[in-house]
Every structure is written in structure tokens, then in C-alpha cells.
# Entry
Amino acid sequence: MRRLGVIGLVLLCLLLIQQPIARADSSVQDVLFNVNGAITQSAFPGIANTGGYNATTGLGTLVLTFNPGAGTYFIDAGFDLSVGNQSVPTVPFWNEYGASGGTLAAGQSWIIGTGASPNDPSTAYQVFNAVAAGGALPGTNSVPGTSDNYTQQCSTGASCNNDVASGMGFSFTLGAGEEAVVTLNFSQTAPGSGFYLSQTHPIDPDNNSATTIYFTGSEVNQPVGVVGTPEPGSVLLLGLGLGALSLLKLRK
# Structure
């Protein structure tokens, strides 16, 4: 019986740490990072912890830890996600729009613009161009959209839905012995506070329910080498593991 109890605990642990799998509502098309002038595209910089980020769907949390020494620096990041029902090969990535909300933190900047922009190539890659330029991002949204573009019938103008990309940046000053920790999070759950960007694919013939991805971020300075607080899932896993060990000891 005790062996069954241990097996049950292990199965429960696996179930609790598994994220629910529903239809895929987003996918990563490209990423670009500018870490104080060092540019990385289509990959993650060496300072990034990607353990909590799904590089296929683009959902989850990225943590970048930067400790070059005292001085003033910036970190900018751009993301081109395709939002909508990814199980449908024909879902039109050009039928999206972006929005922003909340209050910016000190040193935080942003941009919403076009990715590949098949509707109007003259406006292509606005976000990645801004991120590559570095420094404070312009705080503009060139794709507020909401005019349906499923068949690419709305080819130009800010009211037209388009291929959306978004970027967020942070400028900060480090003192001696300090490091910057930049956290970027993508979720289908609207944030309860703080500044955010959103990317929406409305209902259309290939997307039977509107899909929105929310992009939030933060930057904090801390002493070099501080270990972060364990994620709740890790604490739960540790507790269940200790419980299983206790049962095994009782059995012996």
C-alpha cells in the first residue's frame, strides 16, 4: 500500500508541474536582442535564462542577467510572434493588431510595429530596426488596426490589421557590485498591474476565437550573484519529493 502511495505522489507531482496543453495559439517567427550594442538575432544571448520560456509558442518567461560593472546601459528586445490558431496552416499572420496599456516604469520603453508586413513592404521590420538601433525605443504603435485584413483587402494605413511585432527596452545604471535582471513575460492572461503590450488576432475564418498575447517586463538592480526565489512549481516538487522519501523511510 505504501508503495502505491509513493507512486501516487510521483504521478500527482508530474500532473501539477505539467502545463495544460490546449490548441497552439502562438508561434515564434523571430527574435532580436540588443544588449548594450551587442546584437543577437534568431537566437538568445548568452545572458538569457530560457528555462521558463517556450521557444516554439513564445509563451513563458525569459530572464536576462547582465553584470558588466558600474555604468549606464540598455537592453532592448524584439519579438515577432504569429498569433492565432497555429493548427491551421493558412491562418493569416497579417490579420493582427497591437495595443499598449498601464504605466511605464522608470527607464522602460516600447514599440509596436510591423514584422514582415506583406501588406505594405515599405513598412517592414519597424520593430527590429528600432531594437537594432539601440537605446530608448520610440513608444509608438503603428498597427493599432482593428480593420479586418483576412484577405489582405486592407493593404495600407494604421487602421489595417497587419503582421505585428513588439519590442521592449530598459535603460539602467549599475553601481559597483551590481547586476541588472531583466524579466520578460508572455502570457494569454491579462496582467493585473504594470505596463504591458498586447498582440491580437481577431476572429476570422481560420481563427474561431480571438487570441491575445500579453507582453510584460521589468528590470531590477541587485548585488552580483544573488540567487533568485525558487518558482512555486519547484517548491511544490521539492515538498512532494520529501514526502515520498518520508514514506520510503517509514516502509523500511
